[in-house]
Amino acid sequence: MSIWSEETQVRAKEIISRYPEKRSAVMPLLYLAMAEDGYLTDEGMEEVALWVGITPAQVRSVASFYTMYKREKTGRYLVSCCTSISCMLLGGDDILHAVEDESGVPHGETDDEGLLSVEHVECIGACGGAPAVQVNYELIEGVTSEKARDLVNWLRSARPEVVNTDEMQELFGGVRSFDWAVSEVDGAIGPYPAFQPLGTVGTEVGE
Ligand code: FES
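# FE2/S2 (inorganic) cluster complex -> structure
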């Protein structure tokens, strides 16, 4: 019997059906396990192993390789500041320090309330819009230290149910990589990616 909710089980079945080999679904199912529990628990990884037909040790070896799979409780909003070369040259370290200072949360930590987690990350693929920050993997480009402080205070006061790239870019961003980028209507509801195949927000299972 599954430890997951009915909804998560429906999503898991739908995701697995997309692959010729069910073990290929291990990575999206790890995100489902995170969405279910807020982070990857031992039980969640064992559940993934059952669903995709591999051993828990094999699931753990995948989960431990990628930093986006969180093994500890993460705040409702995960603020990721890029400090790789393009962002670093344009003030990425200052932005990280501004976020840490304004939130009182050092890199790798979560506040007592469980609202904000802060981390510095390697390149998040937005070098053209450096310096870049993500909240729950929703991107904001062209951020300044001042805007980063505003972002922290906005998360604390507005506590949006869904964080959305377009909205945060408008409020806290600057120059984007591509002005012609497709408008992002969905958003993230937790500290895991809002991949549409997971039906996280705005997409029904099976679409
Ligand atoms: S170096 Fe920051 S997004 Fe690439």
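# post-check
Strands lie at 77-82, 109-110, 116-121, 133-135, 138-140.
The first helix runs from residue 6 to 16.
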